[in-house]
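1st attempt posting a full record on here, be nice pls
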Amino acid sequence: MSQIEVAQIIEQIKQEIEVDASGKAKASLRATARLAGVSDKAIGKALESANLEPSKLAVMLMEQGFDSANLNLWRTDGIPDIAIAIILEYYAFEAGRYCNPQARLVCRSFNTIGIRAWIQEKLGWTKPQTQQPEQPPAPALPPVEQRLQTLVESMKTLADLTGGKLNPYIEQHFKDFAANLLAEHNRQALCATSEKWMGVVNFAEIELGKKVPLHGSHYRGHLGTWVRTFYPHLSDRQENRLVNGTQQSVYIYACHDSAIAKGLTKAIEEFFAHPNPTAALRQAGAFTNKKSMRLVKK
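the predicted structure (as tokens):
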């Protein structure tokens, strides 16, 4: 018997083989007999023997966890794919003089992928598409005026707790952050323009929600130097702004430009991901350049 003949048998019994939504397959007793190359009476008799004196085939099935009740039901309800594999193996190698080449050919056909996958392939079954879970909405910052109100209330609470004796760095940080929020609020109130110019620290804290420390290797001064050193193409525009209580020239960036915003985001993420940005900046000569500029001014 050839593979072509097996394909013809499959076509003839296709209506008696089914696959459920989970991919499990089963076939009628008659269809299983046709696959195994034996009569349906032979398989039916073997299944029926489970109640009295189990045949060798019935024993093989029960050794795989099936009981006599299962075997009796199969005669009318259909035989599951795992049991079909055992029946085919029996008539291919274990049935003595009842072994036949068709059962061996079918066994060889599904041995590499399994009877279930083999039946699924023959019937053209594909796994149903599962509905993709809905992605949660991206978190968004509250409106500027709400953040400003929260900041003011926090400052009042902290002042009450400390008796008005705030750490100078903390106080300056609150002032800088409040000034940035006011500037953002005023910018949004100007309907005539859609431009958004921000310092890199403002962008990191307001747009990306990052906490930029006042000191340490990842402090705000090093963040600005990092962007100017490794991403100088992002801006050459400067403005005088209040920094730590004094007016200083600060680089500002056109954050309304998606390319600039993308570049700033990349630079900031790299800065915070670097284990030692101070060393990287020193190696790039960033601090040497700043020192030379100070000497020239003198």
